[in-house]
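In response to reviewer comment 3 from the previous cycle, which asked for concrete evidence that the modeling workflow produces usable outputs, we include below a single protein chain processed end to end. The sequence was submitted unchanged, and the resulting structure tokens are shown without manual editing.
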Amino acid sequence: MTPTAGIGPVMLDIAGVELTNDDRELIAHPAVGGVILFTRNYSDPGQLAALTSAIAAVKSPRPLIAVDQEGGRVQRFREGFTRLPPPQRFAELYGRDADAARRAASAAGWLTATELGAVGVDFSFAPVLDVERGRSRVIGDRAFGRDAAVVCELAAAWLGGANAAGMSGCGKHFPGHGAVEADSHLELPVDTRALAELERTDLAPFQYLIRRGLAAIMPAHVVYSVIDPHPAGFSPFWLGEVLRGRLRFDGMIFSDDLDMAAAAAGGGFGERATAALRAGCDMAVICNNRPGAIEVVQALSGHHEPRLAVRSARMYRATAVDIDQSRGREEALAALAALPGG
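The workflow returned the following structure tokens.
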């Protein structure tokens, strides 16, 4: 295998619990820089460790390996992993005991990081930084509550726990997905609020965690129609002027899945990926559509962004914590047990 000059700007998925020859050939393409895993890629921790090792061996620098392991209904690996509560549970505890809620959120971040690191996964697309408004079909209990200040505290605690165990975080869905009813997997949501309102509430958790070292952000496939006609993930205003400029974020920006229905606003798959990177994304994510992934890889085959290597370096996991020997695991599980229904 000939080493590539650097990490590529595409993250894609694979079909099964082992790599096929077609998988290896596609991952080896210079445009591919990451692999996202799903429940279909998992049977047990030993199998997953073998799979991530095989992915890492395809080329150098090795691809980033990611998963959605938020807790609650969005947890891809379950049997053999701690069953993590949905973030809303931490907000419920916060009203009675703020310190206990912060400890529990930190414990969840730490457990996520230690368990994923032990099987060769670099990071989870978490924490969710959306402020829930009681409207969103897709966010709901994935958020750390309806109060922006509480979301800030609990998400920061989760991130601190994850960082302590060697895992970076990816906050989502910038600049906030919690106030729209539509599910962007199925249609294009439109948020009609003014920028001033978003700045007072939804942007606060992003700004708060950026100041605390958040390494990556994923924008929403949502149009904020009073502010900009483009979905945030295709918007130079949101990604360039606001996120890079006003909030001074210099970490990784991952697009949300370009196969989602809301992403069709960007055109064909190659056009979507090109538009996302032109707007300011560092890596285009495309899942559950192998022809679409091939189109994206081909469209970005000549793409080169020198800052990608620096930004992506923070997303690789640090040395894994030995979860079988760590007293921290017992302490973390005890903190989670304090949650409502824990």
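Residues 98-118 form the longest helix (21 residues). We consider this sufficient to address the reviewer's concern, and the full set will be provided in the supplementary archive.
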